[in-house]
Design brief:
Elements: E1 6-14, E2 19-28, E3 44-49, E4 52-58, E5 69-77, H1 80-83
Antiparallel strand pairs: 1-2, 2-5, 3-4
Length: about 80
Amino acid sequence: DNKLGDICFSLRYVPTAGKLTVVILEAKNLKKMDVGGLSDPYVKIALMQNGKRLKKKKTSIKKCTLNPYYNESFTFEVPFEQIQ
């Protein structure tokens, strides 16, 4: 089974400001990765354009959980011309 779990996130783009905001809210039912049956999960975010990674960010690490709550916000500057 390739399923790693479920993630809840939101995307918001403000064309006038040229800002893309990604909010990582939470993850649920993550796959067990540690010997003890838990994980120390985090989320990686990559801003891509034409297959090239422009920026990358990541959330904090949540220790010993398969249902982490993050509520972390990341903002990228993305001109409107690049969104189209």
